C-alpha cells in the first residue's frame, strides 16, 4: 500500500525554537502545561501547540514536553527554551477527540513495521485544530521521527574509507528502495551492501562504520 493510500505523508521538518515544559509520565498535565505556556509566551508563539515524547527514557517514566514554537527565547519558572532539531517524519492526521488517538497510531506505526522502516524513540503530536466542547472536530498530526540509517551509513563510509568506497558500498541506494518499498526489497539492498563492505573493509573498520549508524 502506498503512502497516499495509507493517508500517511513524508515530511522534512526544519529546526525551530521552542518554549517548553517537561515532565514525566503524566498525560493529564499536558493541557495545563499548554495553558501555562500560552499565558507566558503570548504573541511570541508562532505555531500550533505540540507535545514531544521520548519513548527511550523510562527510568522515571515517559519523558514528555509540552511546547510551542516561539520567536524568541523564553525562560520563566518551569518554562525553558531550546532549539528543536529538524527531523524527517512520517505523518498521519488524527480526526476526533484525543481519547481515540491510539487508533491513529496503529496504522502509522504499522506502516513502518510492514515496510521495514526504522523509526526512533521520538514522536511528536501537533494540535492543528482544537475545539473545546466539540472534540469530534479536533485535528491532531502524529509524527513518527525516522532514523536515517542510510544517511549515517553513507557519512561513516566516507569518514572511514573515503568517497570512492562510499559510492561502491552504497551503490544505487536511492533507486533500490524508497519509503514505499517492501521489507524484502529493503533487506536485499542491505545484504548486498554488507557484502560489498566485507570486500573493502577490515573488521575494525566495519565496526567503526556500523556501530555509529
What does this structure look like?
The chain is an alpha+beta fold. It folds into 2 domains: 3-146, Alpha-Beta Barrel (Multidrug-efflux Transporter 1 Regulator Bmrr, Chain A), CATH 3.20.80.10; 149-210, no CATH class. It is 38% helix and 28% strand. The protein has an 8-stranded antiparallel beta sheet with strand order 1-6-8-7-3-4-2-5. α4 (149-161) packs antiparallel against α5, α4 (149-161) packs antiparallel against α8 and α5 runs antiparallel to α7 (183-200). The model has no long low-confidence stretch (mean pLDDT 92).
Keywords:
about 210 residues; alpha+beta; Multidrug-efflux Transporter 1 Regulator Bmrr, Chain A; 2 domains; eight-stranded antiparallel sheet; 8 strands; about 40% helix; globular
Helix and strand arrangement:
Elements (H helix, E strand, L loop, with lengths): L2 H4 L1 E6 L2 E9 L4 H13 L8 E5 L8 E7 L10 E5 L2 E9 L6 H13 L4 E11 L9 E8 L2 H13 L1 H8 L2 H4 L6 H18 L2 H8 L3
Antiparallel strand pairs: 1-6, 2-4, 2-5, 3-4, 3-7, 6-8, 7-8
Helix pairs in contact: 4-5, 4-8, 5-7
Summarize this, please?
This protein is of the alpha+beta class and 213 residues long.
Unreliable stretches covering 5 or more consecutive residues: none
Number of helices: 8
Strand count, sense and barrel status of the largest sheet are: 8 strands, antiparallel
Helix content: 25-40%
What's the CATH superfamily of the largest domain, by name? Regulatory factor, effector binding domain
The SSE string, one letter per element, is: HEEHEEEEHEEHHHHH
Inertia-based shape: globular
Instruction: List the strand order in the largest sheet.
Output: 1-6-8-7-3-4-2-5
Class of secondary structure makeup: alpha+beta
What is the CATH architecture annotation of the largest domain? Alpha-Beta Barrel
What Rg do the Cα atoms give?
A: 20 Å
CATH fold group of the largest domain: Multidrug-efflux Transporter 1 Regulator Bmrr, Chain A
Our measurement of the CA-to-CA distance between the termini, rounded to an integer number of angstroms, reads 28 Å
